[in-house]
Amino acid sequence: MTFKPKLVKFDLYSDEELIKFCSLEVTETYSLDNLGHSIPNGLYDERMGPLKQGSTCLTCNQNYYQCPGHFGYIKTEEYIKPIVIDHVLFALQSKCFNCNKYKVMLSQENDDKFINSNDESEESEVKEINSKNFIINRNGNDDKFNNIDINALIESSNNLDYSALKTLRTILKIAKCPNCLVPHKPIHKVGNEIFSKSIKITIETIKSVLGANFNLCFSKIVLVTPNKFRPINYLGNKVYEDPMNNVYSKIIKERQPNLMHEVDLAIKQVIEKKEGIFRQNILGKRVNYSARSVISPDPNLATGEIGLPLIFAKKLSFPEKFTEFNFDRLFNAVINGNKYPGATHLTSDDVKIDLSFLDEHKRRGLAYQLKIGNKTVHRHVSNVDWLLVNRQPSLHKPSLMAHKVRVLGGEKTIRMHYANCNSYNADFDGDEINLHLVQDYLAFSEAKNILSTDMNYKSDTNNKPIRGLVQDHIVGATLLTMKDTFLTPQEFFYLTISHNVKSGTILPAIIRPCKLYSGKQCVSHLIHSIDTKVCLNNKSKVDEEEVVIMNSHLLSGVLDKNNLGPTSKSLVEIIGNKNNSYNTVLTLFSSLINKYLLKYGFTLRINDLFLNDCGEKVRKKEIYAANKEIENEFMPKQNTNICSDYSIKRIKKQNNNKKTNFTQKHFHLTNKLNYSEEAYHNSSYKIKNIMNQFTSKVLNHSLANTLIPFPYNNLSLIVLSGAKGSLVNVTQICCLLGQQELEGQRVSLMKNNLTLQILHQSKNTLKKENNFGEKEVEKGGFIFGRFLTGIKIHSFFFHCMAGREGLIDTAVKTARSGYLQRCLVKHLEGLMVCHNGYIYNNYNKIISFFSKKESGTPVGLIAAQSVGEPSTQMTLNTFHLAGVGNKNVTLGIPRLREILLVNKTNKKYFTLKQFDLKEIHSMLKDVLLRIKIKEKVKRKKLSDELVKEIIVRIKVSDHVKRVKEVLSDHFVIALNKILRKTHFGEKIIQNKISKEKEINLVENEEQNEEINEIISKESDSDTEKSENHELIKNDSLSNDNEDRNEESDVLIDNVIKKSVSSKCNVNSFMISSKKNIIKLSIILLEKKDVLLYPFIIEVIESMKLNDTEMNVIKDNNTITVEGCGINNLLTFMNDNLMKEVKDDYSMINLINLFITSYSNDIHSINDTLGLEASRNVIIKELKNVFDCYGISIDISHLELIGDYMCKTGIINAFSRNSFSNDDCMIQRMSFESTYAVLKNALMKTIHINGPSSKQMVGGLIKDECEIIYDLEN
């Protein structure tokens, strides 16, 4: 039977058990003698395994490769095993060192005893246990520990359950033991030892506190790993031991286990990360019967074949058992030996004979004995075999396909047809590919019928074709099927001679004056040879005329990428669906087009790149018009939008000196202007919009005015037929390079207001008046030059900057997108469709109730691949969209990480239909109408202390509630901060610390007035000194009272200069509101008078109402609010609308408001509208990210990801922390934090479920496979 592990458990060995399977005790500190030989009982004793190739293990007598290695041990003082140091620490923190009991009150007597101790601070920390032994949180602040069975928790802790110990430690984190009332000493670990403050706790004390249940956590021996895990390194004639030997040597000398934490770190390094044992040696294994080499294109191969060099065919072998049917073939193979087609080995009754060392006479003798016994011949690869072909990175299922072998003599590289490039994401610039030869007939059958290229014609990402003809084949098909392509009978028969069609089926299109066939008739002849009736109406990329095929005759249209490439509803897909073989169609068309191109040829001429005279004139005219538009756009607005105040004064001075308009343009539009960064970026949006329109006009005119017109222009034919490239390539070659962007923006300014120093204009460059707009555009990275005629020096530098950014972006995003896909795969790998159509996970819990896939399909892996593979096509940087109706959002991989890893959304927004919203303000001063401040200094009756009261009344126009919240939270802190900046030396106001809240909020103004009256009664009327200062800020007077404002500024400056050495303390701070007036009351203890009102005004005006910048965009019937989520929606609703909502008992207005609203902030949607709404947002946001790059993904994959993230009732991220307790720990070990998960798995029974878990323990990934394998037995 097949090995089918269901459960696994990690346990601890006792010292006696460890010594039994160790081969020796290591007592010598040295490893090697002067001659390089191992020392007996040393760290390289060969009883722990052979040291080098050719040597034999002294324990098992196996060679270097076969010996598994054997442990040694070192005797030392007793220590805590490193893997359970956290278990021991948590247990000690939960127990009392005096009574050795857990800090739990299990009886009412002890509870009463503790309460009668009159220690209220300690009583409040204790967790009370009721009669049913369930933990109750006395303060009720932490619900996650309510209703836990304390007896079960203690029992699990005694069994070394890591989670139980951690939970118990958290619950029993109190200062006194409730059983003996002895204070608990804080303890911590340092390395592998435990301390109480600075005193080390001895092992004997720890064992006495923990009891016998923890005896396995201690040991007196240290295991020494086998030699193969501590290999000797050679550098020239010098020998270098493994660093672990130094640690072991110290332990042997000192007999102290204080270095065990270094051994622990070494073990952690061995099993962690990508190079660790789990991922490198268990999940990923090296294999035999494989090959790797550079790939080269070969259009003469069939699309389902792989060209294998003869040298590989002679090295790779397939084990074929001898039968009567293959006797002749295997007989000759054994005789040939290394001569192709031959054999490498012969297995006779479990004895494997290498034929390469035998002469022909001996091989012939073995060949005659094939019929005797059980013989298996390991023959060379032939053209009947199938190879698994894989190119890394394997991002989706078509990255591993089965190809039929085509052995090619004289070749040194692997040959492949162009049609497979999209599947492997391969090109032929040095890419390498892996080949794997299957080793039994079952795998042979699976490769042929499941993994073949025909079975991978469509991608699971979007259910669209991924394989098809590309490049030269598309151009050849377009030329062949054009209206003016006619062939003589000789040419026609040359092209169609390989087609199996009865003669006379296709008649010439033209009979007189001579017989001529059209190119379309070649295609019709090919379709007839497949013996499939085809009818098709499809669009063409090249010609407006539709492709029409009736009864397998091509009547009209041109075949291009839409019909022969990897596109839906193409001619290849329709014939392949009917014929159940896409490779047959692709190979026949490839062969036909190869013959046509060999006979007639195709190349790119220099004349294909030139524009005619009309095109050149239009190009220059459009460039001039665009430059003038830039000048006209910014010339009248330059004084206010771009120039600084200094530049404006300079320009005014120039006008007073009667300078010419030409000089004004110089100061407005050249690089000598003092641009502000904000104004530069604002102008960049307008410039980009103007230049985008200009680029489109130039491209349209240029394509229509090439020197050689389309379709005879080969460059245009290549692009428009979909063979290669795009219109951007044509534009850069023939017209202009256009805007070079860095992180989605124009080139930024330097400190000297230039983008490049070379762009500084001298007086000689100002003679041409028409170059101002051009220089203004070029400095931002726009290139008017083209590759055909060359570009300027600064344009070349800008182009290199953009190219460098692309290289770095590609290098960085590869790692990030790869990690993102790995997160998806590890979480979704066990999701599968069951017989009822539901999708279940590893532990048989329903994730989704619907799937379009058939039973047994691993939809989780397919969904992970469908999202991960296209993410490599995205950009890493964040791009921003600007303009009316566009939102400032995060795109690309950063946005994917925000969604899938449930990170904070950086660019929040919400949209809704036009409602009467409040005007959104980000600063408090925007809604400020008036500030009224009163300061009173009073003397108390019973003491000489001065009491200073400051009353501030603030009148605001809107957002009363938000203003009140901001003031109550930040006013005192901000006032102290600004006073420190004025060099007073000390805080003027200090918060009074008490057990109550720092800030006392008085919600009712009447209560505030009562407090003020009480204070005024206590004050001494004879010694009362008061100062009233009122500053009124009114919107209606702000423009008329400039002189008053100047006086206020002088007054504030004088106050700031005043030195204050006194110190003030806040006795109370109260805030209240009534309608739109907010009142602040501050009572201070003051030694002498200090004027604080200038600072109070400055603090109030500088406060922000919102944490983020908010922006409102109104477009038609939609409002977009940037900077906040939907949880802030009600904040911006108009008071009248809120009144209508409250008065309407059906709440229809409020419901409509939320139905018509949307936000990209998943957290705010979840908090406001619930889990189902957040699931829909996850799906929509994922779709939007891919739509921005023109990537289509089947919505079912995104829905499955949304279902998985919401499966527990909360939003779960695709991270290591979001695995549930039901997920197999072995699967979690294969993901991240292997050592930490291994500690948590100690003493637990783990159920094996999931593909990774089964693979790591050596079982089958799917249980259904065992039925097939058992047939052999």
Provide a descriptive summary of the structure in words:
- The protein has 1273 residues and is of the alpha+beta class.
- Among the domains are: 12-79 and 223-281, DNA Excision Repair, Uvrb, Chain A (Irregular); 290-451, Barwin-like endoglucanases; 472-602, Orthogonal Bundle (Enzyme I, Chain A, domain 2), CATH 1.10.274; 603-634 and 688-752 and 772-788, Topoisomerase I, Chain A, domain 4 (Orthogonal Bundle).
- 37% of the residues lie in helices and 15% in strands.
- It has 45 helices and 43 strands.
- A six-stranded mixed beta barrel has the order 12-20-13-19-18-21.
Protein traits:
Enzyme I, Chain A, domain 2, six-stranded mixed beta barrel, 1273 residues, alpha+beta, 43 strands, single chain, DNA Excision Repair, Uvrb, Chain A, 37% helix, Barwin-like endoglucanases, 45 helices
Brief characterization of the structure:
Among the domains are: 12-79 and 223-281, DNA Excision Repair, Uvrb, Chain A (Irregular); 290-451, Barwin-like endoglucanases, CATH 2.40.40; 472-602, RNA polymerase Rpb1, domain 3 (Enzyme I, Chain A, domain 2, Orthogonal Bundle); 603-634 and 688-752 and 772-788, RNA polymerase Rpb1 funnel domain (Topoisomerase I, Chain A, domain 4, Orthogonal Bundle), CATH 1.10.132. The chain is built from 45 helices and 43 strands.
